[in-house]
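User: I'm writing a tutorial on reading structure tokens. Could you give me a worked example: one chain, its sequence, then its tokens, then a sentence or two explaining what the tokens reveal?
Assistant: Sure. Here is the example chain.
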Amino acid sequence: MRRNDHRAPAVGAALLTTLTTLALLPGVAHADALKFWFAARGNYFSGQSDLFQEFDEPFGGGLEAGLEFLGITLFADATSMIPKSGAIPDQWLFTGNLGVDLTFGTNLRFHIGAYTGPILFLFPQGDPPAGVDFDRLSPETRQAIEESGQFEDLMAAEDEFNRYSQQEAELSRLAFGWNLGRARLALDYKFGKIFAIGVAGQVGYHYLISGEQAAAGAKNAAIDNFAAQYMLPDQVAQELRSVVGASPVNPDDLNGLNYDATLYFRFEFTTAN
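And here are its predicted structure tokens:
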């Protein structure tokens, strides 16, 4: 099992504190009074999660837009990733970022920043789940459910658990989480008044859960409640989990690092101090 690095949130917090201190020191770096930008970019993105294995290639392209005010930066990006099928890209990665950004230099510029914010995957619609079929249960388990008194018959029980399957069909398109800390380094060259071209690298420490994991966890909680309320034996509850595709969410599987490298062409508009 992967060992989680619990020092990463502390490192991110320390970096954010350092950058905030630097931003308040005169002469160390400069922050525009107001700056906003749009950028087209090519992207390499990967990380410690099975979700990143959904892509044949970790390359994509997308857009970024942001706003900076007195060193406080808010930006969002959208990246279209290459799917395994080789079809037209219909898998997207979105992030939102709020933090501190410092710039050194005038034309040739070095940027360093620390952020936090949400992260979202959007996958294409897959095949709908087959649903729950209690005919797969052993006779003993079917009898225990019927005698529990919660459902009039097994068909009603199937309908109840199939509601989770319908939710799973929608949730399977999503994965969502949060970058607890995200560090960014960038180097670019500004030419003219509004154009810049550059490269950037980012590393983030995330908690990230797929829609399928969330749905499996919801079904697991429903079975736990059902079994506890009607005092079903453990083996009955375990067989139910197997049939409906329920499993608990393991928090140790949700955290990890993500990292990306970007080549960008940016249009930016600045109101100087």
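What the tokens reveal: DSSP finds five helices and eight strands in the chain. The radius of gyration is 24 Å.
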